[in-house]
């Protein structure tokens, strides 16, 4: 099963100077914000990473406002920096929701590293971006081949609810509409 109490999210490199280069960047940011709002409603911890922020800027304001207390800088492509890995080890999640840039580089390398740790990885496909559709598709295919579950915002949020009797059902339903 996929329980909110056993889940955390990693938001990878949705940064000021990187986002404009992404295909359908505005939609990508809006959908990422929708997903993060849902995670917040369900009290799922959100980790942010920023790839070399001196060069690529910080996380875009819309995403930054919604996200939690953990922001980690990185230069490696995988988001599993020692600090992020320590947090994951401390929280002991079974499930990780991954969103961000770019599908075929940082997101892919993060997902592969998480799968090596036998964690269940969920990818809301609307919340993943690359510069080209081909690169996005290729990244998603590789993640799926590695055992990640490529899904969508609505499916993931409703899986986390599990039941229409969940106390947050109405709030999530309004978010999806």
Automatic annotation (TrEMBL):
Gene3D superfamilies documented for this protein: Isochorismatase-like
Tree of life domain: Bacteria
Record domain Isochorismatase-like: where: 8-154
InterPro entries, per database record: Isochorismatase-like_dom, Isochorismatase-like_sf, Isochorismatase_domain
PANTHER family: HYDROLASE, ISOCHORISMATASE DOMAIN-CONTAINING PROTEIN 2
Identification of the protein by name: Isochorismatase-like domain-containing protein
Protein species of origin: Simonsiella muelleri ATCC 29453
